[in-house]
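Rather than argue in generalities, we reproduce a single protein record, letters for residues, whole numbers for local backbone shapes, just as it appears below:
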Amino acid sequence: MKREIIVTGDGSKTIHLPELNENYHSHHGALQEALHVFIHHGLAFKNEAKKLRILEIGFGTGLNALITLDYAREYDLKVEYHGLEAYPVSNEELEAMDYVSLPALEKLKTEYSQIHTAPWDTLTKLNPHFSLHKIEQKLEAYMPEAESIDLVYFDAFGPRVQEEMWSVEVFEKLFKGMTNGGVLVTYCAKGQVKRNMKAAGFIIEALPGPPGKREMTRAVKP
């Protein structure tokens, strides 16, 4: 499937899929969306634990992993990060994204390189605060260990193009894999998605969305 690189509203880049008319990130701003949804309303909400196991559904360009690494180092957290991706982004595309040319990320050039040169399907310690396990696998085939995940970044393509990724069955699988009090955050706030999360057992919270979106969703396992 053809992939194009476009510039978003905050100057950061994302990948656009013309056949699906879908972006990897918000066209209003890839970086600001990632920070708002996954860091401010996910990681910062859970950082009192000091040691977290994170699962990202849709590793994509590695942007969420990069800003999580930066946050973990700043706030003295220990993060074990598992990034699930069925279709890894090419090295050429990663170079073209050039996230570390942004003023907010330019200090992370070494870390950006480490994330993308780390081997797939192997847990790799990048620094004392952050270990990375990139998993090349479809969500349908992936089964997390029971009660092993503290925080889920649900960053799959939207339900308009990948409805099966947002099903009750998927959320039930993630619910079983999460610890009690575990949190799932996503940019998506569609009513059917929230109903599916509730059916899986989650308590749902609607939160203000990033620029360009009215709402996002945070789901908590009781």
